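Appendix C reproduces, verbatim, an entry submitted by the partner laboratory led by Prof. M.T., so that reviewers can inspect both the input and the predicted structure.
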Amino acid sequence: MSHKADAVFVPLNIAVLTVSDTRSLETDTSGQLFVDRLTSAGHVLADRVLLKDDIYKIRAQVAAWIADDRVQVVLITGGTGFTERDSTPEAVGCLLDKQVDGFGEVFRQISVADIGTSTMQSRALAGLSNGTLVCCLPGSTNACRTAWDGILAEQLDARFRPCNFVPHLKQAEPCESRG
């Protein structure tokens, strides 16, 4: 990882949404992995919610966070597959001002080592909306670990060069952690 000597770490306010018809907050290992990773990195947990796979509830929650001046990043786990109930990309896609096409491509590329060609069934995506980065990832804990360790840890760190997402995010005061 390349760092500029004068760059400083900027803690971000990150909300975590788990989309699942079967998990509870107590059994949500994927959302918990994001909470553990982001707080260990020095970021702040702005909010954490678990919702059933309902396109309108997902869209409403993500839209509320996009509109919230304090939330800079939204990490969503679950609902990105091909079952009839998987609707996260459809819920979120219409809210994005700009899609980060490379996010899903890189996620699938680094996932090949773990799951082979099954990675093509991931509809992982990301985009920017109102200065908020929104990332949609599969519901498996391993997929969340792959995304954090292989993409998000660097791209949410202002010190990472040649570029990262921090300059594209709205400026926000640190919020009180809800973790």
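Helices lie at 29-40, 55-67, 88-93, 101-115, 141-155. Additional entries are available on request from the coordinating office.
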